[in-house]
Amino acid sequence: MSFDRLITKIREMKNPTVVGLDPKLAYVPSYIQKTYMDVDGESLKAASRAIFRFNQEIIDAICDIVPAIKPQAAYYEMYGHHGIKTLERTIRYAKLKGMFVITDGKRNDIGATMEAYTAAHLGTTMVGENECTPFGADALTVNGYLGSDGINPLLRTCKEHDKGIFVLVKTSNPSSGELQDRLIDGVPVYAIMGDMCEAWGREQIGQYGYSSVGAVVGATYPEQLRELRARLPHTMFLVPGYGAQGGGAAGVAGAFDANGLGAIVNSSRAIMCAYQKEGCDEHEFAQAARREAIRMREDLTSYIDIK
């Protein structure tokens, strides 16, 4: 089971965190930008090559202490086909370093279109008689609000290719409650979506008791985190909103079970841009990212006992 592999890495490293690699060019040190712009000018190609080197050095700095990365597809798509290539290279490089990779794509469609998204991000594509792997991530974030028609193609691939999904349930953004907190027969929409995650994953339960269907539940809503942890005993949580969006370690602790498992907490900008916050030499950006990743780990594990 895909999330068994993730949880095993979390236990080994005593670290329930994932680093979001969502790089804007402004996050990349100027000396790296210059290296590629001197060759390719101020182009999408130069930007994409600079971002890959930035990602590569951060991965090198954290791969022995952080179990997973989470690249957000939009930050690569904005650089066109060069950016898409950087996303693919980033995924493959992280996996070579032994990291679990969650692509944050929030894909949502039905039928053949959802099957195509699934093949692209989690599965394989046939080219003649050759079975090719387009991106090869271990898990993908998805939007479940089209119902089972948009999830069933993913479930087949999760089973066949040992993959996982994280379905948007209670997101970290301030306006999430406009829809997700509305009541249907007295039950919030986010709780109904959580119940659907439990149902979708019931035939794919792993050794730690969690299915291949996880849920995205924001750190900015600690009450709902605790509520959903109790309500969804077989659903792994991906928890965005820690740090930059205001979610704290004390509140995030409610996402974990009695064994300190069942969730992984994301930090993106705080780790990528740690060198800017520290005010250290930009050549030390990767070391600063490592220091911030360690600080985050220590912060979380002061509230969570991973067994």
Automatic annotation (TrEMBL):
Example of a GO biological process term: 'de novo' UMP biosynthetic process
Family under the similarity heading: Belongs to the OMP decarboxylase family. Type 2 subfamily.
GO MF annotation list: orotidine-5'-phosphate decarboxylase activity
Signal peptide location: none
InterPro entries per record: Aldolase_TIM, OMPdecase_AS, OMPdecase_type-2, OMPdeCOase_dom, RibuloseP-bd_barrel
Catalytic site positions: 106 (proton donor)
Catalytic reaction(s) noted: orotidine 5'-phosphate + H(+) = UMP + CO2
Enzyme's top EC category: lyase
The entry's keywords: Decarboxylase, Lyase, Pyrimidine biosynthesis
Gene3D superfamilies from the UniProt entry: Aldolase class I
Organism of origin: Ruminococcus champanellensis (strain DSM 18848 / JCM 17042 / KCTC 15320 / 18P13)
Positions of the Orotidine 5'-phosphate decarboxylase domain: 16-289
Pathway entry: Pyrimidine metabolism; UMP biosynthesis via de novo pathway; UMP from orotate: step 2/2
EC number: 4.1.1.23
Family annotation (HAMAP family): OMPdecase_type2 (MF_01215)
One Pfam family hit: OMPdecase
Protein name as annotated: Orotidine 5'-phosphate decarboxylase
Database matches in CDD domains: OMP_decarboxylase_like
